Amino acid sequence: MWKIHNCEFKEQFVPSILITQKSEKAAEGFQKLIRDWGYDVAILTERDTILDTIKTVRPDVIIVGATADEPSSLKLSRDLREKPFNIDIPSLLIASDFEEGDVAVVVEKTANDCLVSPFSIDDLRVKLEALMPPQVDKPEREIFEYAGLILNARSYRVTRDGVPLHLTPKCYRILKRLLEQPTHVVSREVLMSEIWGMKANVDKRTVDVHIKRLRTALNKGDAVNILRTVRGAGYSIDINSL
Q1: Please, how many CA atoms are within 13 Å of residue 234, restricted to the half-sphere of its CB?
Q2: Quick count: other Cβ atoms within 10 Å of Cβ 191?
Q3: What is the pTM of this model?
Q4: In a 10 Å sphere around its CB, with 0-12 CB exposed, 13-18 middle and 19+ buried, how is residue 174 labelled?
Q5: Domains assigned to the chain
Q6: pLDDT tens track for 193-219
Q7: Which of 186, 199, 192 is nearest to 227 (CA)?
Q8: Per-residue confidence (pLDDT) for residue 1, from 0 to 100
Q9: What span, in angstroms and rounded, lies between the C-alpha atoms of 22 and 46?
C-alpha cells in the first residue's frame, strides 16, 4: 500500500516537486518550506508504487530522503534514474547518517545531486533551483508594475513615477529577479548564483553593495522604499508598501 498527500500539482506553470520520505513529519516540514519559495509540492510517504505514480504525476524534481540504515531508499533513488520513462526527471537525495566518504559513491549511483544532513536552507534552495529544468512553456512576463515602478523586460527600461532610471546590468537583473516573485525572500546565495554565476569570484558583500545601489536609484525624492531586507535571509519586494 502507498500513502500520498496532495499529489496534484494545481498550477500549470508552477514548478513542481515530489517529496518521497519515510518520515511524514519531515516531509511536511520540507513541503512547507519549499512552498514558500513558490514551488508546488506533493508528498509520497509510502514508496512501493512511486514508479507508477510518477507516470501520471510528472514533477520537475523528485526529492528522496535516505538514511544509511534504509537500503530501500537508495534502491528507489537508483530506480528513478534507471527507469526509461523517468530518465528526464532529476532527483535530489537528502542523505542522513552517511559516512562522508560514501556520499560521492551514493550520488554517482543514485541521484543527480545530494545534500548531507545537516545542511542550510540556502543550500537546499540552490540545489533545487539548479536541478529545476527550464520552464519552456511558461510565458515570460514582460511588464512589471509596482508602486509607480515600471520594468519593461522587452525594452530593458525602468521608470519610477515616469522618470527613467539608469541601472547597471547587475542591478537591473536583481530588480527583475525580485519582481518576478514579489512575495518571496531571495537569498544572497541565490542572487550570487543567478546573477553572477556559480563560478564567479563574488561574496555576499558584493550582493549587499548592489542592493544598496539599487535602493538608492529606486528611492530618489519621496518615492516609497520598495526593497525589503530580511536579516539573515535575503531581500524581497516590500508588498506592504504597494
Answers
A1: 20
A2: 23
A3: 0.51
A4: buried
A5: 4-131 (3.40.50.2300), 143-241 (1.10.10.10)
A6: 889 886 677 888 999 999 999 999 998
A7: 186
A8: 27
A9: 7
